[in-house]
Structure formats: C-alpha cells, structure tokens
Amino acid sequence: MSQIIEPVLRLINQFSKLPGIGYKTAQRLAFHVINLSDDEVEEFAKDLFYAKKKAVFCPVCGNLMQKGEHACVICEDAARDAALVCVVSDIKDVLAIEKTREYKGIYHVLHGVISPMDGIGPDDINIAGGFSFCHNIVSFKFLLYPYQTFSERSHLSELALLVFLLQC
Ligand SMILES: [Zn+2]
Fold first, then answer.
1. Please, what is the end-to-end C-alpha distance for the chain in angstroms?
2. Considering its fold, how many domains does the chain have in total?
3. 91 alpha carbon to ligand 1 midpoint, in Å?
4. What is the pLDDT of residues 25-72, one digit of tens each?
5. Inside any domain, residue 123
6. Do 47 and 64 sit in the same domain of this protein?
7. Is residue 1 a part of any domain in this protein?
8. 97 CA distance to ligand 1 middle (Å)
9. Ligand 1 center to residue 131 CA distance, Å?
10. By residue range, what is the domain housing residue 12?
C-alpha cells in the first residue's frame, strides 16, 4: 500500500499528466504545493482557471490571444508584412522567432505535425483553420521553422506544407 495519502496521490497524478513531467518531478511539485500557504495555493488555482478561460487561439494564425480580441497582437500589427507567412508547428516556435526581433511577417501555427506513423493526418492539425489572409493577398512567401533544408526538415513535414499551400 502506498505511503502517500490519497489527496496527494491525486495531485501527483495531475502533475504527471503534464508534458515533460515524470513521476519524481510530479511528486516534488505536489510536495511543493502542499508546503505553500492556503493563499498561495488559492492564487495558483485562480491563475490556472484565469489562463484557461482567457487564452484562446487567434482565428487568423492560430497563435495565442486574449479572449474577446479580434486577433492576436502579431496579426493586428499593421507594421507586419502580411504577405510573408512563417508556418510553424507550435506556439513555442512563434515565441522563439519573436525573441530574435528579426522577423517582420506573420505566422501560421499548425499545432502539430503530420505524422502518419502516429496516426496524425492533415485533419488533426491546423491546416484549414484561419485562412482569412489567403483571400486578401495575391502572393505569399512561406518560410518554414525551424529553418532547415528540405531533406533535413523533420519538425514540419513537407506533406503538411503541401496540403497547406493547396488549400490557400
Ligand atoms: Zn494571429
């Protein structure tokens, strides 16, 4: 029988569901939470709900935006080149590129990659969603991130890009 009481086991179980968190880390996080004051735990729980309630995907590019806004800050930025679209697999990629302060185009976030081996097809990622920019602009330049040569491209499959382009 486990030496850990059931409420803490449940907390460990929740943490271990998070990406990149193994059982030991989940255990450490759970014990950390138990050691927090009631006020700190309440604030933590409130922020979890708040983020989940307020963060939605931009209907244009798939980046995160605050609920109630028309589009994300990048799509709303008139100084951006809307004919330059960087196709990325994940929101983390947008953050990484924005950190460089070099890129002045917009994005399309796929929220995954096509992986037939894992049963992930074009319908499972954000290929069809949010193509409003396609109807307004005659020509695009597409970039792929991470910046790799065609043969090295592993994060974003060529098939995903092909389907993406065909639907534009
Ligand atoms: Zn956007």
1. 58
2. 2
3. 11
4. 999 999 999 999 999 999 999 999 999 999 999 998 899 999 999 999
5. yes
6. no
7. no
8. 14
9. 11
10. 6-55
